[in-house]
Amino acid sequence: MEGAKLGEVAVVGGGIAGIQAALDLADTEFKVYLIERSPSIGGRMAQLDKTFPTLDCASCILTPKMAEVLRKDNIELLTLAEVVDVIKNGNKFKLTIKQRPRYVDTNKCTGCGTCVEKCTARGKLGAPDEFNEGLSTRTAVYIPFPQAVPKKAVIDPNICLRLRYKRGCGICEKVCPANAINFNDTERILNLTVDAVIVATGYKFIDPRLPELSIYGYGKYPEVYTNIEFERILDARGPTGGALIKKDGSHPERIVFIQCVGSRHYKINPYCSAYCCMASIKQAILAKEHEPKVDVTILYMDIRAYGKGFQDFYNRAENEYGIRFIKGRTAGITEDPSKKKLIVKYEDVMRGTIETMETDMVVLALGIVPNIPSFLNRLGVVRNGRVITRPGDPISTYVDGIFVIGATLNPTDIPDAVLQGSAAAARVTEHVLRRKTPFEVMRS
Amino acid sequence: MSKHIEVRPEIYTKIRDFMKKLGADDFIKCFNCGTCTVACPIAEVLGIVPFSRKIIRYIMLGLEEDLVNSKEILLCLHCGECSEYCPKGANPAETMHALKTYIIQNYLLKR
């Protein structure tokens, strides 16, 4: 089959946008290299419980697509890999990729999980689980999450006792029924030559520990959560098994959501993060569905319900679920140590009064900024922390053949990310075929 | 709460131009979130809520009479807490300082 393809494309980032682009390109008979930094594809969407505004299960949409990536012969999946550099060479791009060692032979590993059960680096010796945003710990050899693709174990060299001390332990090697553990695995540098590059590296959250955001007390008070952490608590696969409980195991009576934390702030990130209004409304509804008695309040600056079905969703949250929406912004959260309650002080802007509210949990709706890989900076398509694209063609950069999609461009919700993934696939097809003569296309 | 008001853009322009001369026209960035009110150490104690959001609203709507009759402006301590917390960098503290000058020049000295 090699050589029978229309061309070769690299998709950087295995989130929902990258997966969609890779699948569409593979169906069009392109050879696709899907390059993902973490051990599994899926990205942020894999961490979500439900999606807005329909409250569909997120993994029910994502997991079939992830599994399809593995089934396609045209897709070569490179996990634990990062693109170091991209050089334009005529019509082609030369990619240098650094692939971190997995220490597990992916051809032999069956994903049975025996090594995970026996691993000695757990509990205090373990590491915070990235999938659960550090709310639980994982072992040194681990499978990122139950639906991971590829569902293969990976060893974290920072906490594995054998890899740290070069001797001892090695229990995973002994128990593995497939003999898949390989402690001598090393870092690899791969070189690829492709016709086009699609960048879908997604976004990163604003750090809630920034000094400007210290007023919200994240890290100081245990019951202040970021919204992705709260999503993990709501998820049945999460650290609490889907029970809405505080860190001490009791059920909360009141939850307060604080919007625009680290977005629309002139010192940190002046832009609106677009997703947080709907994400908080969704989480508020899910909290109500978990615990119908819980009192949920959303402190907002403006509710930006701009998409299809968003306004209905907002109205439903207010009228059907009885979620309180208060226009106001808090200037600080304090704790009442005797009652172990958090105190949120805010101005109810509609009434013009200062109010204080005792609450059990606070959820910060964190702003997001594009996660722009360094090679885009070197290609000169980034200005002021944003990728610049052609007017009227919002996914094509000024370097012919490099397409940028999803939250790498701008904060994006899931439907838009899928849309842009498909759009990029179409643009790559057009870009590659335009350069070939009709005879070349027919022959290939 | 509800009161009949007349919006007067020409007063707004007049005050804004005056404030611009003093370098305190940051208040046009205000989007009414109310953080300044919560941050203010005197607003709740003295019962002058919602200060200073209300004052900035008065300028925006050109309500000069309300502005001049507000005792809040003269009570402001200029501690700068509101400017510290303001997400837009609208500097309410500077605005209050400049408004003091405006009221003194235009009203108290002419009396």
Can you offer a commentary on this structure?
The complex is a heterodimer of chains A (444) and B (111). Chain A has 444 residues and is an alpha/beta fold. Chain A has 3 domains: 8-100 and 187-202 and 371-443, FAD/NAD(P)-binding domain, CATH 3.50.50; 114-175, no CATH class; 206-368, FAD/NAD(P)-binding domain, CATH 3.50.50. Chain A contains 11 helices and 28 strands. Chain A has helices at residues 16-27, 58-71, 114-118, 161-165, 171-175, 227-234, 276-290, 310-319, 374-378, 414-435, 438-443; strands at 8-12, 31-35, 50-51, 56-57, 75-78, 81-89, 92-99, 127-128, 137-138, 141-142, 154-155, 188-194, 196-199, 203-205, 224-226, 254-261, 295-300, 324-327, 333-336, 341-348, 353-359, 361-366, 368-370, 382-383, 386-387, 389-390, 393-397, 402-404. Chain A has a 5-stranded parallel beta sheet. In chain A, strands 15-22-16-17-18 form a 5-stranded parallel beta sheet. Chain A is globular, with a radius of gyration of 23 Å. The N and C termini of chain A lie close together (11 Å). Chain B is globular and about 30 Å long. Chain B has 8 helices and no strands. The model of chain B has no long low-confidence stretch (mean pLDDT 89). With 111 residues, chain B is an all-alpha fold. Chain B is 57% helix and 0% strand. The chains are: A alpha/beta (444), B mainly alpha (111). The A-B interface holds A 215, 260, 264-267, 301-302, 327-332, 345-349, 351-354 and B 1, 29, 31-39, 43-44, 49-50, 53-54, 85, 87-89.
**Most extensive contact:** A-B, 23 and 21 residues
Structural class of chain B: mainly alpha
Number of contiguous helices of chain B: 8
* Assembly status: heterodimer
Strand content of chain B: under 5%
Give the CATH architecture of chain B. Answer: Orthogonal Bundle
Structural class of chain A: alpha/beta
Which residues of chain A form runs of ≥5 with pLDDT under 50?
none
Q: Strand percentage of chain A, roughly? A: 25-35%
CATH architecture assignment of the largest domain in chain A: 3-Layer(bba) Sandwich
